[in-house]
Amino acid sequence: MHALLSLLPILVVAVFLVGLRLPASRVMPLSYITAVLLALFVWKIPTLQVAAASLNGLIITGTLLYIIFGAILLLNTLQESGGLATIRSGFTNITPDRRVQVIIIAWLFGAFIEGSAGFGTPAAVAVPLLVGLGFPAMAAVVAGMMIQSTPVSFGAVGTPIMVGVRRGLDGAPQVSEFAAARGLDGWEALLPEIGAKVAILHAATGTLIPLFVIAFMTRFFGPNRSYRDGLRLWRFALFAALAMTIPYVIIAHLLGPEFPSLLGSLVGLTIVVPAAKKGFLLPRDEPVWQFGPRDSWESEWSPDNALTSTPEDKSTALPMWKAWFPYFLIAALLVLSRLPAVGLGSWLKSFSFSGLLLGTSVNANVQPLYLPGTIFIVVVLVTLPLHQMKGEAFVRGFRRSCKMLLSASVALVFTVPMVQVFIRSGGGLAGLESMPVELASGVAALAGQAWPCFAPLIGGIGAFVAGSNTISNMMFSLFQFEVGQQIGTDPRWTVALQAVGGAAGNVICVHNVVAASAVVGMVGREGDVIRKTALVFLYYVTFSGLLGFALTRLS
Description:
mainly alpha; 25 helices; globular
């Protein structure tokens, strides 16, 4: 019964947002109220703790809006300076085929940004870049969300493993005993082993993701509405996938969880971009694939308030290096600030605000200089003199960015507090575990020996609610470890399946979709996006679960 009740906030989202296609700004208040009522009257959480969790959610919302604003401001700055026009022409010189462009930008460049920064940053960078190149806003958001699966478990220099799984397993005696039985020097030596298994599962499952991206794009946004137009590029799509996933697996085994997405995507870019320029594995007997004329697009693809690229530019063409320099600088600053050996991240984190809220155990912590939003704004300030922008052009872009930001705020103001109430619902007078753990326990009781098939689903639900693979891993890693031991299988595999499912959950996470949509001014269509990306989520958790079940039987 408690497992079923734990599902109610999620069911509200599924029914009203995805099923009835209501905007997130109307659905998320309902989900928040549902979570609060359950916490107060079923879990019997003290009112102050619920209020503190809600307040912490508002603080986190502020940080998300800050990141979104920085991304929007950079995009509008480049649009005003003419940088986007130069970038657009550069991609046309590689190939004018939109299917190849989306693989390079969303899959490879997006994976690189995920590997360096994580936390939804790829959508904030890749999605507006696609729109700037002439993609419909809806197509850009769907593509940007679909790729937030394979690279996510190793995002932000391995944070979901090195922080999420580590904190989830830390201090558990059964984990230390398992490590000692294997002759390991401390239980943390399990983390690279778990990471290597995560890479194998992701590589096997994620190799089809670029093909899914282009097939979905041609089916839902192409002039012929045909999967076949995307599937014709199957050889190049698999080549581009393997160019990333093969080095990704090798790096996970040799270097550990910090670098598979970061370095694997760089290797992929150096292989795929020259190959695309030469037409390698691209069909030569058919015309280049393009979207239909803009006046033939459906209104939901780019609503009136959506950002659209314009063929005319407000300044003269820029040299290619100047146009791309802001993105190179973003990538460099993200990497430097996330690598522990550099020390820049520690310095940026030292400027923080933290404290317990309303006298409860709920701790709020904000590190403003460490947030990607600060990096975006710094890059904007560098771009202004570099692109020789006039003051009125910047003011136009700034005003447009503020208007776009306001449309995202309503949905996020309720989404993130709902998440915080949901995951902080343990320890009440009812003596129940938190809602996510009660839900997972109910599924485990039903699954029995088939648990590995369902382990990714639990990780995915955690990320769907929390919006973070890291948080999902913190909540469920120990639970997954214990279930693995109870059914007599290698618990490293069940924890790995948790991490893979947690990555897949980002594909359908509401506040990630809201954030990605807000960056291109397409708030209100979140349900339409999730209806499409949910198919990828179901594929990911099903295939990885079946593969994990087979591997646990063999181990």
